[in-house]
Amino acid sequence: MGAALPLGDPAPLDGRLPDDVRARPETDFSVYLHVPFCRVRCGYCDFNTYTSDELRGARQDQYADTLLDEVALARGILSQAGSLRPAATVFFGGGTPTLLPPGDLGRMLQGVRDAFGLAPGAEITVEANPDTVTDAAAAELAEAGVTRMSIGMQSAVPHVLAVLDRTHDPRNVDTAVAAARAAGLEVSLDLIYGAPGESLDDWRRSLETVLALEPDHVSAYALIIEEGTKLARRIRRGEVTAPDDDLQADMYELADARMDAAGFDWYEVSNWSRSPAHRSRHNLAYWRGSDWWGFGPGAHSHIDGLRFWNVKHPAAYAQRLHAGQSPAAGRERPDAEARRLEDVLLRSRIRDGLPVSELLGEGRHAIAALITDGLVDGPAAFQGRVVLTLRGRLLADAVVRALTP
């Protein structure tokens, strides 16, 4: 059911933002819509998601209406903090958003459109489990305004899916991609590598399967074992082996080589796109520190440096909103040092890089050694930006430590 919420100051019951927090028209605004429902819990998952027997009074069939209450509340709060801005991106995440009827997702999107408007050419993404995508569902989502589908493939190898507790039929990835294409949607495929028992040949098979499907975008994330998950308990009991760091590094290098050969460019450490036009603008908004409002249980938001987050459980979330209260549980405003560290951490991960001018003295002085060590691209640094090399992407945390002494 997800990690604990962060510590912070209590949020007011009306959700009002501090008077000095402003919705600034020059800053892009994005919307995240959290759908916290899953048929089963994957063994590695630490997200704030719930199966049917964990809902304790919350109802899936009422969820869209409840979330729309938060949208209406947010409109009033943001209108008090400055001018309303149209959403440049909208992202339905989860959980499994496509467990809800397409009509519910369409109503949620229409609620965002009515409250804030959508920017011209807005990117509208829906995450999907391959087993939940049909021709009719994809067409209905496209009709509602969705432009992009992010399909959770994870692997093409049955024994890898089994150790991850993924229950979808690998063959349904093909049909989900075909359905999305027929509806005119862009397609992203999501992969996880480094699962217990996964070999380099297994990973190569998944990559070849992905590239044969000719998606517009691919995400590939190294498996991280989160405390409290079923997979962490299995590793602790010795039932399966922990991921091997060296093997994960080999898998990343193989992925980058195969993506490059197929005409994909990396634009963030774990993300490749067929062209700049197919990059995930929603995720770039996070990495660049734009404003966003996260709707739904446990969702996080960021407005003008203020961070706040909702109560976790769908029942508590619904109870707050039905009482006319904000679902926000807490909030914080990181100080200048914390914001600087976060900015370096996030912006150094993207291909556009981090402006050298934003580093303090010791961080700037570290660049020469990072170039010598093959972690930072020399020509880009001379042009004023810190851009990671392939080796630097594998050792991104070390680069951040050097840039923020």
From TrEMBL:
Domain of life: Bacteria
The entry's keywords: 4Fe-4S, Chaperone, Cytoplasm, Heme, Iron, Iron-sulfur, Metal-binding, Oxidoreductase, S-adenosyl-L-methionine
Biological processes per GO annotation: porphyrin-containing compound biosynthetic process
Keyword Heme: yes
InterPro entries tied to this protein: Aldolase_TIM (IPR013785), Coproporphyrinogen-III_oxidase (IPR034505), Elp3/MiaA/NifB-like_rSAM (IPR006638), HemW-like (IPR004559), rSAM (IPR007197), rSAM_sf (IPR058240)
Subcellular location per the Swiss-Prot or TrEMBL entry: Cytoplasm
Molecular function terms from GO: 4 iron, 4 sulfur cluster binding; coproporphyrinogen oxidase activity; metal ion binding
GO cellular component, one term: cytoplasm
Domain Radical SAM core: 23-265
Gene3D superfamilies per UniProt: Aldolase class I
Similarity remark: Belongs to the anaerobic coproporphyrinogen-III oxidase family. HemW subfamily.
Function: Probably acts as a heme chaperone, transferring heme to an unknown acceptor. Binds one molecule of heme per monomer, possibly covalently. Binds 1 [4Fe-4S] cluster. The cluster is coordinated with 3 cysteines and an exchangeable S-adenosyl-L-methionine.
Annotated protein name in UniProt: Heme chaperone HemW
Organism: Microbacterium lemovicicum
Lineage of producing organism: Bacteria, Bacillati, Actinomycetota, Actinomycetes, Micrococcales
Gene name in the database record: hemN
